[in-house]
Amino acid sequence: FSVDLPQIHAHKPELWITTNLATPTPFGLNVGKDHTGAVQASFELPTGITFLAGALGGVKVEEMEQTKLAASTRYSFQIAKPASKKSWGRVYFGADKPGRRGTIAFQTQGPAGALRTEIPFRTLAVPATPQPKRLLTGMGWWHPKATMTWPDGLAATRALGFNSVPTFGQWTRDTDTEILAFLAEARKQGFLILDIDSPLHAMMSKNRGKTELFCQFEDGTTGKKLCPSYRGPLYQKEIQRVGLAAGRTGASVVACDIELWGWAGPKDCPKCTRCQADFKQAGAKEWPEWLLDKGAQVWIDLAQAVQKEAAKEGRTVDLGGYDFQPNKNYQNLWPIDRLYPKYMTNTQVSTYTPLEPYHLGLIGDEVREDRKHLAKSDQLPWISPGDAGTFPGSMFRYALLETLANGARGNLFWSSRVWDGETLAAYAHAIRNVTPVEDIIMDGKLVEGGTITQGARLSGVRKGDRMFLLVADYFQDVKGPLQLRLPVTKPSRVIDLDSGKEIGRIAPGGSLKISLGEELARPLLVEPAP
Question: N or C: the chain end with fewer CB closer than 10 Å?
């Protein structure tokens, strides 16, 4: 390791290379404290391991010079203008067979010297994973071009159990014919299109310096934030843009990221002459309630524009906003409970963490609390696939299971930078766990009345006499099996959703001992015994 010399780095201590489908592997670059000029770089891949696609430092793998060595192949290339970057490149490895372990070496060479790094790898095959019929699965904040350059991208994502293809409608124009054709093909193959948009942000960035957008003060000056009562031509154009973008991309799910104000929301309204006039005309009595009316109006305008375009093709759109939670007024502007479910069909609590044991419980608790205030499991929580800190794939799987066992019907993710084979294999693992119980997740209610050994954790949803449960001990505080009591009304069997095998039975008023083995959490199905 060096802070002085240019150095390529992986984001985890081991690379997971999938053999039956390609998955991305990200790399970063640290240029070094005093480095100037070009850098020569190389990767040495042992026989049986290859580069399939991707690019590093802007150099595509097919453009790299290949040199056959005794037991490896060296891929060499030059970085003309190196710059330190976490997401410096993404490659797709190929591997000849699962079950291999070895090392991959990479080296940088500059005027001040060379630096060689070796990192271990393992190869694995991802088991067959079904696409859920009702839950939303996919990669969230991920550009369609990244899927287009992924080797057999649609087939690979289908094999992982994903049923959605993400896009960014605000960045997709009518002239982006390749992207639009790709999205059309994805829809033809049965994928949902997820459109992530930033309404109002696009308007603000395109019209920098246009003061009509800001709160207007008596002395002729303006504020610096969007005025919540502005409804001029730029606003109307922006509302139309969002709707057209959703229609153009064929979106069935639209997630809106609106973060124009701080947590306290718009603050200049009482001083704004336009807001004052609107306040008076509305007959409002209190500024906070008036502000919620303004937010509701904006969201309803957005929702109607999006649904209008979707209706032209016979679709309805599942619509929600980033960090919008029930029983709360986001940024004191967006009245979630007033908008759900007519104009807002899902809520999206956000919890970006490094997935330590505490965070896993926090993620589940946040989703569970929000589910209490919703009619259905209408949540698509945002979590991170690694930007908030490095974690093993197993912890990512537990996080996904926590959301789904506490009232979510899918997840969204930020960002795209560090997805890798380990994380995606863990995601597929979670999907295999929950597809047998997706009807319980979608149509059920939170399990109430169950208990588990103190120090452990019990989450679950039930539909009639069937329950999907997650039992966990993330801190490993409990010695020995966990004692589980459940509100069953009939003699029931307990099935491990990992193995598909029955692991015990429980009668009304009875209990069951559950061992976690090497795991920190275990997904279970409880249903009446035959």
Answer: C
Question: Using one digit for the tens of pLDDT, what is the confidence trace for 219-234?
Answer: 999 999 999 999 999 9
Is the sign of the CA dihedral 142, 147, 151, 155 positive or negative?
positive
Spell out the alpha helix ranges (H) of 312-383.
Answer: 336-339, 357-371
**Radius of gyration over every alpha carbon of the chain, rounded to an integer in angstroms:** 26
Nearest to 438 by CA among 399, 490, 401, 491: 401
- Closest CA relative to residue 321, chosen from 303, 294, 308: 303
**Superfamily of domain covering 445-528:** Golgi alpha-mannosidase II (2.60.40.1180)
> What CATH number does the domain located at 7-124 have?
2.60.40.3670
CA pseudo-torsion sign 194, 304, 403, 26: positive
Ramachandran quadrant class, 410 (left: phi over 0; alpha: psi -120 to 50; beta: rest)? left
Taking residues 346-369, what's their average pLDDT? 98
- What are the pLDDT digits (tens) for 62-86? 999 999 999 999 999 999 989 999 9
pLDDT for position 203? 98
Q: Domains of the chain: which residue ranges?
A: 7-124, 135-197, 199-319, 445-528
Q: 393-404 vs 357-371: helix axis angle to the nearest 10?
A: 20
Q: Dig out the tokens for 485 from the structure.
A: 């009591």
Structure tokens at 280: 């008076």
Q: Is the peptide bond before 341 cis (omega within 30 degrees of 0)?
A: yes
Which residues fall within 8 angstroms of residue 383, CB to CB, at 6 or more apart? 350, 351, 352, 353, 363, 399, 400, 403, 411, 412, 413
Joined together, the tokens standing for residue 501 give: 């095998």
What b/e string do you get for 107-117 counting C-beta neighbours within 10 Å, with b at 16 or more?
bbbbebeebeb
The CA–CA distances, whole Å, from 365 to 286, 446, 457, 485 equal 34, 12, 11, 20
pLDDT of residue 34 exceeding 80, the answer is no
The residue to which tokens 């490149």 are assigned: 89
Cβ neighbour number for residue 90 with a 10 Å cutoff: 21
Confidence of residue 477 (pLDDT cuts 50, 70, 90): very high
Q: Residues 263-307: pLDDT tens digits?
A: 999 999 999 999 999 999 999 999 999 999 999 999 999 999 999
Tokens linked to 251 = 């979106």
What amino acid is encoded at 342 in this protein? K
Q: Are strands 192-197 and 164-167 parallel, antiparallel or unpaired?
A: parallel
Are 7-124 and 445-528 the same fold in CATH? yes
User: Please, is 128 exposed, middle or buried when counting C-beta atoms within 10 Å of its C-beta (0-12, 13-18, 19+)?
Assistant: exposed
How far apart CA 420 and CA 161 sit, in angstroms, is 15
**What integer pLDDT is reported at residue 110 of this predicted model?**
84
d(CA 35, CA 12): 25
